[in-house]
């Protein structure tokens, strides 16, 4: 949250980052974008609607 507040202050609505930033995990990225506590493994989805958890952690999916 500190990085988000540093970049955007109290600004609300849509914003655009001028540069890429690196965050430590999918959850940290979700917190940055959405604010508050988030589980990035279930918040982020691909174009097929599959969560990060499904794509990267699901052992059954890995064996397909």
Provide a concise account of the structure shown:
This protein has helices at 2-8, 26-34, 40-43, 52-57, 59-62.
By helix and strand content, what is the structural category? Answer: mainly alpha
The largest sheet, given as strand count, sense and whether it forms a barrel, is: none
Number of strands: 0
Query: Shape, please?
Result: elongated
Number of helices: 5
Order of helices and strands: HHHHH
Relative helix content: 40-55%
**Termini separation (Å)?**
38 Å
Word description of this protein:
The protein has 64 residues and is mainly α. It is 47% helix and 0% strand. It has five helices and no strands. The longest helix is centred in the middle third of the chain and has 9 residues. The chain is elongated, with a radius of gyration of 14 Å. The termini are far apart.
Key descriptive features of the protein:
64 residues, mainly alpha, 5 helices, 0% strand
How are the SSEs ordered, and which strands pair?
Layout: H1 2-8, H2 26-34, H3 40-43, H4 52-57, H5 59-62
């Amino acid at each position: 949250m500190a990085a988000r507040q540093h970049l955007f202050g109290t600004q609300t609505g849509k914003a655009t980052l001028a540069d890429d930033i690196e965050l430590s995990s999918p959850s940290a990225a979700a917190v940055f974008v959405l604010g508050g506590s988030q589980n990035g493994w279930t918040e982020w989805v691909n174009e097929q609607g599959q969560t990060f958890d499904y794509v990267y952690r699901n052992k059954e999916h890995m064996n397909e």
